[in-house]
Design goal:
Elements: E1 4-15, E2 18-29, E3 33-37, H1 44-51, E4 59-64, E5 67-69, H2 74-80, E6 82-85, H3 97-101, E7 108-109, E8 112-113, H4 115-129, H5 144-157, E9 162-166, H6 174-187, E10 193-197, H7 201-207, E11 210-215, E12 218-224, H8 230-238, E13 257-266, E14 278-286, E15 290-295, H9 301-309, E16 316-321, E17 324-326, H10 331-336, E18 339-342, H11 346-349, H12 357-362, E19 370-371, E20 375-376, H13 378-392, H14 408-422, E21 426-430, H15 438-453, E22 457-461, H16 465-471, E23 474-479, E24 482-488, H17 494-501
Parallel strand pairs: 3-10, 3-11, 6-9, 9-10, 15-22, 15-23, 18-21, 21-22
Antiparallel strand pairs: 1-2, 1-4, 4-5, 7-8, 11-12, 13-14, 13-16, 16-17, 19-20, 23-24
Length: about 500
C-alpha cells in the first residue's frame, strides 16, 4: 500500500441493539483509488457516514493525515479534507453551477459576494473536471453526468485530500463513465485519494488500485486489485459461490399475448418530462415470458414504459391487454387492468421513504388487508408482510421499520412485493438491479423467474447488456424513440445488441 492517508481501526456501531459494524478496519493510501465493497446491508454506508461525520462510532479510532481525528459533523470532515459525493446528488436546482460549487463559501467580504471572483474560480475548477458549460447555468438544466462533475468540482474547491464517491456511475452512459474514470485516474498524480463504492465489479478492475470487502458488518479482507479476480471478490462479498449473471431457465411455452403495443407514438415535448419522441413502437409480450428492452440512455425505453403505464400521455397508437384496447389516462387505469411498473428510480418514484415497511408494502393490497373495504386489519397486514418477507428474503427489523433505513436491494424487494401482492398480469421493471449488490441481484433475477413461471408477463428494461441477455427470453432494441430490432435472447450477444442499439436498421 502507498503511504497511508486514512486508517480506520476497530470501528463499531449499533442501532437499537442491532450491530451494524463490528470492529471494522479500512486503510487508504495517498493517491489511491480504493474500492469499498460488500452486499447491501454489509455496513458500507454506516462506515462512510462515520468517516464523513454524519454519525459517531460507538468504538474505534480514525487516523487521517497522520493524526488522530474526530469528526462531529460533516462540516468537521470537510474542513479536514474529506468530501462526499452521494448517489443522490445534492445540488440546489435553482442555483447556478458557480453558486453550487461555492455554496456557503462564496468569495467576498461580509455579506457581499464577489460575483466576478465566484465565476472565475468556478470556471477554473470546471475546466479541471472537463465541464464545458457557462458557470451561470442553473443546476436544473444540467444532465446527471454534468451535475456529478459539479459535485466533483465542489469537492476540489474544498482542497480535499479524500473524496468518497457513492455509486458514481449508476446513472451514467458508457461515454460518461469513461470521462469520469479519466478524471478519477488523474487524481492519483495529485496525491488525491478516492473511496469508490460500486456494485459494478468490472469497474473495480478497471479503475481501482486496492479494495476492502465487508460482509454483515464485519471486515472480510483487503488487497490489491491486480492480485484478485471478479469471481474471488464475489466469493468474499457473499460468503458463498454465486454466478454473477445466471441465464434464465427455459420458460414454459405459451402463445397467449398479454400485452400488444401497436404504433405507439408521441411528439417531442419540452425539455424534461416527455422530451423524447416515440415513433411507431410495436411489440408484444406473452404470458409467462420475460421481454428485455435494450437501448442507450435517451433511446426511449423508460418513456415507452411510462406511456403504457399511463404515467405519461401518448399521441397515437394502441395498447391491448388480453386483447382488449386500453388507453390509460393515469396509472390507476393501468393498475385496474393488471399492469404494474417498478420505476428506475425507486427512491423518487416508488417508495414513501419516510413511511414504514408496512405502509409501503400493503398500499396496493388494501382489499386483502381491510374489512368491508374500510377498516384496516393489522393481523392481515402482518400475515401479508411475513409472507413476502420469507418469500423474497427481505432483511428487515420488522414491519414498522422506516423503509429508507433498508439497503437498496431490500428496498427493491419491497417494491416488487407490493406488485406481487396486487397479482398483476403484466409487470414492467425498469432497471431492476440498479444500485444493488451481486447477491441481491441474483435474488431479484430469481424472483423475476419465479413470477414468470406463475404466468405473469414481464418487461425488463436494463442498461446492462449481460443482464438483459441473462434474464430475457426475447429482446427488442431501441434507438432515439424507435424499435430497431428483435432477437431471441439465446441467439444474441452483446456485440449484436450494441449494433442494433446504435443503428436504424431493423433486424429481420
Amino acid at each position: 500500500m502507498r503511504q497511508p492517508l486514512l486508517q480506520m481501526n476497530g470501528i463499531t456501531k449499533s442501532f437499537g441493539g442491532i450491530s451494524a459494524l463490528r470492529a471494522v478496519s479500512l486503510r487508504v493510501g495517498a493517491g489511491e483509488v480504493h474500492a469499498l465493497l460488500g452486499e447491501n446491508g454489509a455496513g458500507k454506508s454506516t462506515l462512510l457516514k462515520i468517516l464523513s461525520g454524519a454519525q459517531a462510532p460507538d468504538a474505534g479510532e480514525i487516523d487521517f493525515l497522520g493524526a488522530k481525528a474526530t469528526f462531529n459533523s460533516p462540516q468537521d470532515a470537510q474542513r479536514s479534507g474529506i468530501a462526499t459525493i452521494y448517489q443522490e446528488l445534492t445540488l440546489v436546482p435553482g442555483m447556478s453551477i458557480a453558486e453550487n460549487i461555492f455554496l456557503g463559501r462564496e468569495p467576498g467580504r461580509a455579506s457581499f459576494v464577489n460575483w466576478g471572483r465566484l465565476v472565475d474560480q468556478a470556471q477554473g475548477l470546471m475546466s479541471k473536471v472537463g465541464l464545458e458549460k457557462n458557470p451561470r447555468t442553473l443546476a436544473r438544466d444540467l444532465s446527471v453526468a454534468e451535475q456529478q462533475l459539479v459535485e466533483i468540482a465542489r469537492a476540489l474547491s474544498m482542497k480535499s485530500k479524500l473524496i468518497i464517491m457513492d455509486e458514481p456511475t449508476a446513472a451514467l452512459s458508457n461515454a460518461e463513465v469513461d470521462r469520469l474514470f479519466h478524471i478519477v485516474s488523474g487524481f492519483r498524480g495529485e496525491g488525491l485519494s478516492v473511496i469508490f463504492v460500486t456494485h459494478r465489479l468490472e469497474e473495480v478492475m478497471r479503475v481501482c488500485d486496492r479494495f476492502t470487502i465487508l460482509r454483515d458488518g464485519s471486515f472480510v479482507c483487503e488487497g490489491d486489485v491486480a492480485d484478485t479476480s471478479i469471481d474471488a471478490i464475489i466469493r468474499h462479498m457473499v460468503g458463498r459461490e454465486i454466478t454473477a449473471m445466471q441465464r434464465r431457465p427455459a420458460p414454459a411455452a405459451t402463445e397467449a399475448v398479454v400485452l400488444r403495443v401497436e404504433n405507439l407514438s408521441r411528439r417531442r415535448g419540452p425539455e424534461g418530462l416527455n422530451a423524447m419522441a416515440l415513433h411507431d413502437i410495436c411489440f408484444e409480450v406473452r404470458r409467462g415470458e420475460i421481454l428485455g428492452i435494450a437501448g442507450l440512455v435517451g433511446s426511449g425505453r423508460t418513456e415507452t414504459a411510462r406511456a403504457i403505464f399511463g404515467a405519461d400521455p401518448f399521441d397515437s397508437g394502441e395498447i391491448f391487454v388480453d386483447g382488449v384496447s386500453l388507453r390509460p389516462t393515469s396509472p390507476q387505469d393501468a393498475i385496474r387492468k393488471g399492469i404494474g411498473l417498478v420505476p428506475e428510480d425507486r427512491k423518487q418514484q416508488a417508495l414513501f421513504l419516510s413511511q414504514s415497511i408496512r405502509a409501503n408494502l400493503t398500499v396496493t393490497a388494501q382489499d386483502r388487508v381491510s374489512r368491508l373495504g374500510v377498516f384496516i386489519d393489522s393481523s392481515a397486514e402482518d400475515t401479508l408482510i411475513a409472507e413476502y418477507r420469507k418469500m423474497l428474503r427481505i432483511r428487515m427489523l420488522g414491519p414498522e421499520q422506516i423503509v429508507s433505513d433498508l439497503s437498496g436491494g431490500n428496498q427493491q424487494k419491497i417494491v416488487l412485493a407490493r406488485w406481487l401482492a396486487l397479482g398483476p398480469k403484466l409487470l414492467i421493471v425498469d432497471e431492476p438491479t440498479r444500485g444493488i449488490d451481486v447477491g441481491a441481484k441474483a435474488e431479484v433475477h430469481n424472483l423475476l423467474f419465479q413470477m414468470a413461471r406463475t404466468g405473469i408477463a414481464i418487461v425488463v428494461i436494463s442498461s446492462e447488456l449481460p443482464e438483459v441477455l441473462a434474464i430475457s427470453d426475447r429482446i427488442i432494441t431501441m434507438r432515439e424513440g424507435r424499435v430497431t430490432g428483435e432477437v431471441q435472447a439465446d441467439a444474441a450477444n452483446p456485440e449484436m445488441l450494441m449494433a442494433l442499439m446504435t443503428v436504424d436498421a431493423v433486424a429481420a
